[in-house]
Queue: 4 jobs
Job 1
Amino acid sequence: MMYAASKGLGIVIMEPMRGGYLVSGMPPEIQEIWDSADIQRSPVEWSLRYLWDYPEIAVVLSGMSEIKHVEDNVKFASGGLPDSLTERERELISRVKKIYMSKTRVNCTGCRYCMPCPSGVNIPENFKYLNNAEMFDNAEGEKALYSGLEGQASNCTECGQCEEKCPQKIPVSQMLKEVVKLFGK
């Protein structure tokens, strides 16, 4: 990002909530950090303000499915200026980021660029279950949900088409093997 900005390129951010992953179902240790903040904000507002704090970022594209989301985002944007977070707020965000990174097995945003899979694997859903099992320390619960999934990881033939399309450069076939290892067929 800094390199692109140094060359005069505008930075556009997609998936600021990582497909909703950062704002739905909060691990308790992350919620504790947010609760300790001097100013209480929703996870959505924290995510957006984190990005808006960077002067290098020109645009943040946030998917919104309800008018309430639009209203909230407009309200948040009115205070979301570059360099507007305090050092304490940046430190809280850094702690949250470290926890998320340590609990994320696959860096998948759920963008679905990898889809459709010719073998019928629902790649983003497989990765969601794998990440949730780690994030919430609930492999058994996620396995129960996974068992009803159409397009399980075991259908992967390692054709590689998904890996060519993945903007995150995820080794999809390798990570789908991790799903099978954790949840079985």
Job 2
Amino acid sequence: MARGQRDPELERQWRERIARWQASGLTVREFCRQQGLLETSFYYWKRELRKRDAAASATLKSSPAKKSRPTFLPLTVLPAATLSVEVRCPSGHVVVLSACDAASLASLFVALGPQSREPQAREGQPC
């Protein structure tokens, strides 16, 4: 690779090394000794990558952003689906639960007692 050109693979390797060092909790000297790296190379790449990141960030900030109008899409709002349960007791009482969930229904059956758990189908009436 010609002098002055960046090697993306080399940059990726050093970014990974620096990330591993940060996660290791070791000093730079200990990390470099364990990895077989020169401390001078480590510090060079740490400084170089920081410069590259700062330059890339400055380029992004100075680039004029395209101004685009927000796009709004039409939405159709539907009513929330609700479950309504109607319980007719043998005594003639009718209990209606709107927006009933499983816990509420279970509480109702406990309150009604053991007979409420066995449905009794009657001709012409809901079960």
Job 3
Amino acid sequence: MRKQLNSIALAISMCGLAGTAYAQEAGSVVVTGGAAWIDMRQSSSQELKSSSQFGTFTSPGTGAEIHNTFTGEFLVTYFATEHIAIESAVGFPPKLNFFSQGGATP
């Protein structure tokens, strides 16, 4: 019981640390910045397969991979009314590191 009361007291005291919320008016534009994590979890490939007018071939020992990266972004929010907003994300093109191995031969 005492542990539960301590948890409730902690939760109530944390409410005092929370900032106040500011309501937006119609016509307001809010711009926020941040970072986006691009996760290329399924980026690795196995053997290279190629199709052309001369046929299809597989090159054993080949592969490729793209690594994960961060990029900057801005969120632009326009409040059409006090309760309805239109939001757009604008970001910087990320720099991706592409690694490959092997030699492609028919």
Job 4
Amino acid sequence: MSKYRLPIRDFCTREEFEANPAPALDAAMKAPVVISASNGRFVLRFEEGLKRSVKDWALSPGQLEDDDRL
């Protein structure tokens, strides 16, 4: 089951997003939103958590074997 409570929905056009991205970013924290473009669409989704550096990831248990190289 998805952690999102609301369905993915059309939110704005690319031009509207480029002019004022804050509303779409705020909405994406609650549920994925669609930003329409002339030749397709973008699906904007927020994922909680912080990015880790490759160094931190590599040092975590089980990620690299002894003969692996970065």
